[in-house]
């Protein structure tokens, strides 16, 4: 989920920042100090230096055990702290505050438990180092005193060695404690690199070439696709789909929800890779060309229009950064968006808020259409482009789209059949395959067809208003009633 991903990345970045701070301000300084003082101890008395370093193996073993526990707990903590609640309006509308509060409280309690475990593990390093360090210092003092008193050793050499040892004790203790904290930050670094190193599902081949646009003909040949992981088997969304969208003409896709229409648009733009078959644009397999060069020739209006933080003009310029203000306004006029933009406080410089929160659904959709018109691409992809508009606005925008679609290869998805009545070819899609095709008049005339049923439902307005056909059983029943 996007919120989880953002939450995880934020925590990982803080961990990496702490890692860099520790490395620069503590680790390097204390490590160099310990190395220099240990070297002096070895120079003064190798045997005593060996005695004082006998505590190193048990410290390393115990710290390694702590680090393994820290690694596991740190990952669990990042996972818990990344579970951010979304959709506050839905929460309020359905009075879900209490149950959401319980859920957040449970997450907070679990996160607190793991934080306390982490604090306890970190705190254990200090008593460990104090105990083992005290034993080492006591042993060294006792043995060096014996050598001075009994064997006539040099008191100055003993004091010099003890001074170096005691000076090395504090930075060594900090390094032991730092080792545990370092492992916690390394977990964040590993997690963020796991994200960065994730290979993209759709990437260019090594020998991918630039896409060369011809007349804009699109062909699907025996295409199969399922939404599943590479090592999993999923139910096919597209099954042996074959059709052609002729260049410069409008091809409409209709059918029941979940039939695979939007997936067809996504596959054409190579948002997913196929499980089988091929998609050709002007005879070129889209897997053999550079993705960016292919998508540069598409103008896309999605079913759920997406706007970005910034002004209205900024959002429109995403389609074509070099567009002039006149071109932006012309596209907005064609999409019936110019008037409400001028009514905004700052006109085209008005901020739209996060995902267009300051605009209505119809306004967002009109801006999405204007963005597609501004791109001026030879292949136009419309996924329910007018679904959020009122009847008057839809008629105006549809008239503008009809002008723009002329001489362009257009693939349009629509549930309102009135918007595709003029399409050159209509494909009826059901369960990921073409079950019927033809013009509006041809399909509407087929009484038994799926398209004809959709057309009847929309013309009548309600299934309840459709009179059932009189079957022989009905006629017999009516005749018996008369008798």
Question: How would you describe this structure to a colleague?
Answer:
With 483 residues, this protein is α/β, with parallel strands linked by helices. The protein has 16 helices and 10 strands. The strands form 2 sheets. The protein has a 6-stranded mixed beta sheet, with helices on both faces. It has a 4-stranded antiparallel beta sheet with strand order 2-1-4-5, covered by helices on one side. Strand 4 (276-281) and strand 5 (284-285) form a beta hairpin. The radius of gyration is 36 Å and the shape is elongated. The model is unreliable at 462-483 (pLDDT under 50).
Quick check: average pLDDT?
79
How much is the radius of gyration in Å? 36 Å
What is the subunit organization of this protein?
single chain
Strand content: 5-15%
Distance between the termini: 68 Å
Helix content: 55-70%
How are the strands ordered across the major sheet? 6-7-8-3-9-10
- Sheet bearing the most strands, described? 6 strands, mixed
Uncertain segments are 462-483
**String of helices and strands:** HHHHHHEEEHEEHEHHHHEHEEEHHH
Number of H- or I-type helical stretches: 16
Tally the beta strands: 10
**Helix-strand category:** alpha/beta
**3D shape:** elongated
């Amino acid at each position: 989920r996007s919120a989880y991903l953002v939450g995880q990345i934020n925590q990982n970045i803080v961990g990496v920042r702490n890692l860099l701070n520790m490395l620069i301000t503590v680790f390097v300084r204390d490590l160099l100090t310990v190395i220099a003082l240990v070297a002096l101890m070895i120079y003064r008395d190798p045997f005593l230096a060996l005695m004082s370093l006998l505590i190193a193996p048990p410290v390393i073993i115990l710290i390694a055990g702590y680090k393994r526990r820290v690694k596991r707990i740190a990952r669990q903590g990042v996972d818990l702290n990344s579970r951010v609640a979304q959709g506050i309006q839905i929460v309020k509308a359905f009075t879900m505050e209490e149950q959401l509060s319980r859920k957040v409280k449970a997450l907070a309690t679990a996160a607190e438990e793991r934080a306390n475990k982490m604090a306890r593990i970190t705190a254990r390093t200090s008593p460990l180092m104090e105990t083992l360090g005290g034993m080492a210092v006591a042993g060294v003092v006792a043995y060096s005193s014996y050598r001075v008193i009994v064997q006539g050793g040099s008191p100055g050499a003993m004091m010099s060695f003890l001074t170096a040892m005691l000076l090395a004790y504090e930075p060594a203790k900090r390094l032991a404690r730092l080792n545990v904290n370092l492992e916690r930050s390394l977990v964040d670094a590993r997690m963020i690199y796991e994200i960065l190193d994730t290979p993209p599902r759709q990437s260019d081949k090594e020998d991918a070439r630039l896409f060369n646009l011809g007349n804009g003909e699109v062909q699907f040949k025996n295409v199969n696709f399922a939404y599943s992981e590479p090592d999993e088997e999923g139910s096919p969304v597209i099954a042996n789909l074959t059709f052609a969208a002729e260049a410069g003409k409008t091809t409409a896709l209709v059918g029941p929800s979940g039939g695979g229409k939007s997936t067809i648009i996504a596959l054409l733009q190579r948002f997913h890779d196929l499980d089988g078959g091929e998609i050709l644009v002007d005879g070129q397999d889209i897997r053999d060309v550079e993705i960016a060069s292919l998508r540069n020739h598409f103008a896309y209006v999605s079913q759920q229009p997406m706007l970005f933080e910034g002004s209205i003009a900024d959002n429109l310029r995403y389609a074509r950064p070099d567009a002039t203000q006149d071109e932006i306004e012309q596209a907005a006029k064609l999409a019936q968006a110019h008037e409400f933009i001028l009514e905004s406080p700052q006109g085209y410089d008005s901020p739209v808020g996060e995902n267009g929160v300051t605009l209505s659904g119809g306004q967002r959709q009109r801006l999405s259409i204007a963005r597609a018109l501004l791109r001026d691409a030879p292949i136009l992809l419309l996924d329910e482009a007018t679904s959020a508009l009122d009847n008057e606005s839809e008629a105006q925008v549809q008239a503008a789209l009809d002008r723009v679609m002329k001489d362009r290869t257009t693939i349009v998805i629509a549930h309102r059949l009135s918007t595709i009545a003029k399409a050159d070819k209509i494909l009826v899609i059901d369960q990921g395959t073409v079950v019927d095709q033809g013009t509006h008049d041809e399909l509407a005339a087929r009484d038994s067809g799926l398209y004809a049923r959709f057309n009847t439902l929309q013309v009548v307005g309600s299934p309840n208003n459709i009179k059932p056909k009189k079957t022989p059983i009905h006629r017999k029943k009516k005749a018996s009633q008369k008798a």
